[in-house]
Every structure is written in C-alpha cells, then in structure tokens.
C-alpha cells in the first residue's frame, strides 16, 4: 500500500499510461489492418461490396432487404439468381473475413480448430466421391473455392467450379493461383440451373450448401444429372430431399444428417463467435466512419448477425440442419 502511495503521481504512472495506450494501439492495428478475423480470409480494411461500386453498397443492401417484403416477387423463380448474386456481392468479403475461404458448416471435431474441422468435412466429400487423380469434378456453387482447393489437393483430381457471382470467380481464381492449384482448379461464372457444360462430361460432382439457392430443387439436381457421366457419383449437402433426387433419376446410395448426435452442436461456432461479432461490428463502424469501408457494410454485418441468431435457434430447436448429406449415383444406363 505504502509502495503504491509512494509511486502515485510519479513518472512511472505516466509511462504506464503510455505503455497501455501503445498496447491498445498495437491491438487495434492488429485487428483492423494485419490479420483477418479467420486466418487466410480478407482483412477488415479490404471489406467492400464485391462487384458493386462503393457508392452502390448501401442501395443494394436496401433493395435486397426490401425484396423480402414483396413475397410475390420472390415467388417468381426468374428473380432468384439476381437476388442471390446481389446477396453474394454484399456478403462475400465479410464471409472471407469472419469465416474463411469455405462458406459452409462442418461437424465440430474435438481437439480440432474450425479450420481443421472444415478441411476434414471437405476431405470427407472427396472420399465419398472416391476421387482419383485426373478425374474431372464439378463443384456446383463453389463460392471462393475453399472446398475446391481442399478437394483438389487431397485427391489430385481436376475441379471445375461454377458460381453465379463474378466477384467470387475473381477471388477464387486469385486464391487458386496463390495456392499453386490454378492448373487443377478452374472457375466459371454462370447459373448452375443452366450450366455451360456438355452432357455426360464430369466424372463426379458435389455441392456444399449451394443447392438451397435453387428456387426449384429438382432443376438443379436435373442439371447436375445431365452433366454427370453415367454411373458416376454426386454428393450434395445442406437442405436436400431424397425423393426429389429419385424423381430426377438418381439412385440414392446414402442419406444421413452429419449434424445429428453424437456430433456436437453445429451452431456452437455461431454462438462462440458472438464476442468476435461485437468486436467486428465496432471495427466496421469505425472503418465506415473513417470512409475506408463503404456505407452499408455495417447493415450487411448486422443482417448476418441476425441470421446467425436465427440459425442457432433452428439448430437448438432441431428444425434445421445445414449438413443433411446425400450420396447419389446416375445409373450406368
Ligand atoms: C453458401 S455458398 C457455398 C459456397 C461453397 N460451396 C463453399 O462451401 O464454400 C453458396 C454458393 O452457391 C452459389 N450459387 C447460388 N445460386 C447459384 C446459381 N444459380 N448458380 C451458380 N451458383 C450459385 C453462390 O454464388 C455461392 O457461391
């Protein structure tokens, strides 16, 4: 006590304050400029609106948000690809920043990080497809290519991804090059309901958390069936319907939910991310204030946080799973 009293008001205290301020400054620099929230993703200072110009982000977000107040328009399937494209312009940078290069859930694996669990999930898809070097594989709804690179690297196969969003195409190509996988991984911008690929041209196909964006599920299954060679496999995970796959002509080899016990709750990652969300929200608000992040990015981040809360409720109440997995085969003849 006497020591504290004796040192109070001395230069040591001033040095302590300076030191603390320095530490805070280094911490802020580290969070904002140096490191993505999730390793290998985007940095906060790079957040934007995908292919949209800076000045278009806020308006596109408003347009996107109000779309859901017009259910009649949602009912028109033709409007969906444009809506999905806008959505991915708005969220792709934030996903990469906060989640990484793979935009999907995966079963929690004890002792493994989120990144490792994500890779294991992708390797599982490669193994279910029995991929071998030289096989040509379709990734329908490939995002920025996290799964594509993991699957190509693990199996030695050649992966062709398709995404509706041209910003994701650019991101995926750049990541492929950096990973030294650009000879093995190709990315095309297009609609997976009308793919620019010939009939019977792929040795395998998969889609991870992507077919949910098809207004009519049978249409995306049909299109994948068309481009797959007879006798070959298609693995699809997220919201899937076995009966629809059968109607299209697929044989159903496996049908299970990777999120069911003994798997631990898939929404754990969303819940654990809450502190990070608040931190990230402050960072984005600050960057918007400085004019570094475009207006509207804060609203997009807010929307994603609400989505995470609803997804968590869906998981806790058992009414939703993001990991329903089907292994399908196109019959030989
Ligand atoms: C949740 S992300 C998943 C991406 C990737 N499979 C992954 O796990 O990282 C959904 C993806 O589906 C794509 N997508 C949605 N509708 C599409 C369509 N009609 N045609 C092509 N891609 C589409 C989106 O552009 C996005 O890349």
Automatic annotation (TrEMBL):
**GO molecular function annotation:** methyltransferase activity
Enzyme superclass (EC): transferase
Can you tell me which residues the record assigns to a coiled coil?
none
**This protein's UniProt keywords:** Lipid biosynthesis, Lipid metabolism, Membrane, Methyltransferase, S-adenosyl-L-methionine, Steroid biosynthesis, Steroid metabolism, Sterol biosynthesis, Sterol metabolism, Transferase, Transmembrane, Transmembrane helix
Cite the SAM-dependent methyltransferase Erg6/SMT-type domain residue spans from the record. 87-331
InterPro entries under this entry? Methyltransf_11, MeTrfase_SMT, SAM-dependent_MTases_sf, Sterol_MeTrfase_C
Q: Which Gene3D superfamilies match?
A: Vaccinia Virus protein VP39
- Bilayer-spanning residue ranges: 12-33, 277-297
> Which pathway, metabolic or otherwise, does it act in?
Steroid biosynthesis; sterol biosynthesis
| Keyword Electron transport belongs to the record | no
UniProt record, GO biological process: methylation; sterol biosynthetic process
* EC number(s) per entry: 2.1.1.-
Q: Which PANTHER family match?
A: 24-METHYLENESTEROL C-METHYLTRANSFERASE 2, PTHR44742
Into which family does the record put it?
Answer: Belongs to the class I-like SAM-binding methyltransferase superfamily. Erg6/SMT family.
Annotated protein name in UniProt: Methyltransferase
Q: Which organism is it from?
A: Riccia sorocarpa
- Which taxonomic lineage does the organism of this UniProt entry have? Eukaryota, Viridiplantae, Streptophyta, Embryophyta, Marchantiophyta
